[in-house]
């Protein structure tokens, strides 16, 4: 699965990235919505006719091609940000009388800059992992929303279905990934997409440091995954438009591959507003535009994201046959009395009518609910690698069900790599589900004795209440059993 192309860390890091100067006025361009589709998304979603009103609105956002003008970012003045790196706060509000709130410019945290340098200039050949990473983020965002909605059902109120949609535009070389998950507030955007928020990425950087000049950086990208930033393996520009239920406003995060900064602005185009979740648009690099082919994306979803437990729809061209009338060139002569009339006969022929529609592309039944006799070793291994971001097959796995006092289903794996030894980071090796809803993987040493903490796996039980709190979980008899 891993590409073997190599490049030294130093060479990559010394790439010629533009450095944004503090206090310089700049212009930020808006993102354009994506569609190559001749028709707007149709009303057949999930095979069911009719789409809820808000979902329709979401779909129309997808279908409407629109380029908004540039936003003004006027004289920016430097201010020291929190942990997340420097922030250039715009003083535009004071001088700009237009209704459009100005974009604010932020600098990436130093580690992110390093990572971006590496990603952007990497010769890593297995770039397609970007889709796995972004779909996995979308799935996490849906998991978070579903979990929170157990105790706060308002979160789902009026909202669209919990799903992931991927639309490609091969003419313009863009891919749009939309989820209806938890979304991000402005602060969460800064905290998540400007810093090293992910443990996977932190591991990556640590391994990178250890490998130093050993020219293995390309492989490291595949081994650890670089999360959200992997979008820049294939993109010149990435635009994230996101709406959290915690905020009234929708925000747009935007950055270019060759930049060490990003901007955040409020979404003001009403046609682009989404009820909830995140829409991520990738503007593909010239050599990577091939990823914007609908069939290619469909294949990648099947390969990498088959175990995501939310429906993933891809936008596909379809055809149906219909009968149409055609003129018959052979004329029929009709004799009536002395006159001979010539009439053109009507005939019908079958033609294929093309249209675009969403197609369910993954299998959504969790693998642990299947009969172990029907699951192949390859499927167990693929699930392990997808779920735990591992690049090697496990040494062993065990899929079992307990019945009686406590019922649960579980798949446990013995990894082939040595235990993660990053201090200060909790292992997130056991994922607990209750009735198929992901609850937590934050069980450092609680679900397993410490000496077994290298074991990875999933546990799903119907015997715990869904709205269980973490404290109750810790004391729960069911959990201890
Ligand atoms: N589609 C999304 N919806 C909501 N939040 C998102 C989305 N994509 C990314 N994020 C936020 O950005 C953070 C960073 O994402 P990134 O992929 O870099 O790491 P991660 O997913 O946290 O870590 P890991 O890859 O180790 O699981 C996420 O933790 C999440 O808070």
UniProtKB/TrEMBL annotation:
Xref: Pfam families: HATPase_c_3, HSP90
Record field: compositional bias (Low complexity): 21-37
Residue numbers spanned by region Disordered: 21-50
Histidine kinase/HSP90-like ATPase domain: residues covered: 126-288
Keyword terms: Chaperone
Keyword Ribonucleoprotein: no
InterPro entries from the UniProt entry: HATPase_dom, Heat_shock_protein_90_CS, Hsp90_fam, Hsp90_N
GO molecular function terms listed in the Swiss-Prot or TrEMBL record: ATP binding; ATP hydrolysis activity; ATP-dependent protein folding chaperone; unfolded protein binding
The keyword Chaperone is assigned to this record: yes
Entry similarity comment: Belongs to the heat shock protein 90 family.
Official protein name in the record: Histidine kinase/HSP90-like ATPase domain-containing protein
Organism: Zizania palustris (Northern wild rice)
């Amino acid at each position: 699965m891993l590409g073997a192309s190599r490049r030294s860390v130093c060479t990559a890091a010394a790439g010629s990235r533009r450095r944004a100067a503090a206090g310089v006025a700049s212009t930020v361009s808006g993102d354009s919505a994506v569609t190559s589709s001749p028709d707007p998304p149709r009303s057949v979603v999930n095979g069911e006719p009719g789409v809820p009103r808000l979902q329709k609105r979401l779909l129309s956002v997808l279908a409407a091609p629109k380029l908004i003008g540039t936003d003004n970012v006027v004289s920016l003045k430097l201010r020291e940000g929190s942990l997340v790196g420097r922030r250039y706060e715009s003083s535009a509000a004071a001088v700009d009388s237009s209704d459009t709130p100005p974009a604010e410019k932020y600098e990436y945290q130093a580690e992110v800059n390093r990572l971006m340098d590496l990603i952007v200039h990497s010769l890593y050949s297995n770039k397609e992992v970007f889709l796995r990473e972004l779909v996995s983020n979308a799935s996490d965002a849906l998991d978070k929303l579903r979990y929170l909605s157990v105790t706060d059902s308002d979160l789902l109120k009026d909202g669209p279905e919990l799903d992931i949609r991927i639309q490609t535009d091969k003419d313009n070389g863009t891919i749009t990934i939309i989820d209806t998950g938890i979304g991000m507030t402005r602060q969460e955007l800064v905290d998540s997409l400007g810093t090293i928020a992910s443990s996977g990425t932190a591991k990556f950087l640590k391994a990178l440091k250890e490998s130093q000049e050993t020219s293995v950086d390309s492989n490291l990208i595949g081994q650890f995954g670089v999360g959200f930033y992997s979008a820049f393996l294939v993109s010149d520009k990435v635009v994230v438009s996101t709406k959290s239920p915690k905020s009234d406003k929708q925000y747009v995060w935007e950055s270019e591959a060759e930049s060490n900064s990003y901007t955040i602005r409020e979404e003001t185009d009403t046609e682009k507003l989404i009820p909830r979740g995140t829409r991520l648009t990738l503007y593909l690099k010239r050599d990577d535009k091939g990823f914007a082919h609908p069939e290619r994306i469909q294949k990648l979803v099947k390969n990498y994201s088959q175990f995501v437990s939310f429906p993933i729809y891809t936008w596909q061209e379809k055809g149906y046959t219909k009968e149409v009338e055609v003129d018959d060139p052979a004329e029929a002569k009709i004799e009536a009395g002395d006159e001979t009339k010539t009439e053109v006969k009507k005939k019908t022929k079958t033609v294929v009518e093309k249209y675009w529609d969403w197609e369910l592309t993954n299998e959504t039944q969790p693998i642990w609910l299947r009969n172990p006799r029907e699951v192949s070793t390859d499927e167990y291994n693929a699930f392990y690698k997808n779920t735990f971001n591992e690049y090697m097959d496990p040494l062993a796995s065990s899929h079992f069900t307990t019945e009686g006092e406590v019922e649960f289903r579980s798949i446990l794996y013995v990894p082939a790599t040595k235990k993660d030894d990053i201090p200060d980071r909790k292992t997130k090796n056991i994922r607990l589900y209750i009735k198929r809803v992901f609850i937590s993987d934050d069980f450092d040493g609680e679900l397993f004795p410490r000496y077994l903490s290298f074991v990875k796996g999933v546990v799903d039980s119907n015997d715990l209440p869904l709205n269980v709190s973490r404290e109750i979980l810790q004391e729960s008899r069911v959990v201890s059993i």
